[in-house]
Amino acid sequence: MGVTTLAVLVGLALVDSTSIGTLVIPLVWLLRPGPVAWRPLLTFLVTVAAMYAAIGVVLLLVGESLTRALSGVGDLDALRWVQLAVGIALLASSFSSAVVGRFAGRALVWRDRLRDGDGAGRSIAGTATIAVAVEVPTMLPYLAAIGILAASDLALGAQVGIVGGYAVVMIVPALLLAVARAAASGAVEAPLRRLDGWLTRQAEEMTGWVFGLVGFFVAADAAQALELFSS
Transmembrane: is it a keyword of this entry (predicted)? Predict the structure, then answer.
């Protein structure tokens, strides 16, 4: 795996770090008065990361089986063509207000339910499980990253290791915000509220950018592997 592909994966992980489970829900908790509740926050984030990693491993195993099947008929490029088609579709969908508005609306509804106390009695791990389940249809950057790994020439063990690292990168921004909140509660509360307000106002536009960037990177990686633009 080249440095460029690795950089793409890190970029996708950072995009994933702004999702419902990795940032929106932790941000709601960090905006509450009082000291940071580290135990439930860490339990939540670790559960989210573990579930993402588990989903990734399952998808890699499926991809490994598909790769072996295609290898038997000498058609490995089929995976890359599928990846290219998915990337182009995502890039095109980024210009559809109906598509991005639907996904952005889901995130805001989930955020508002948490603020209103809906489901407050559920366990922390249960809340994390629900958050990841809600995100499954919208985890486009993660699915793109898994697709890139599945189509790479890395051994399955190395792919699994990268998936684990990807899941850790996803929760790093929330952890850094928590550290800042604990270290300087009064100083960072106002910026956190501004960030929350900005995320709310820009939800649809940010979703469109996510679709567009993920689509571009996925399509570009496939095009490079297929040598579509080589002289």
Answer: yes
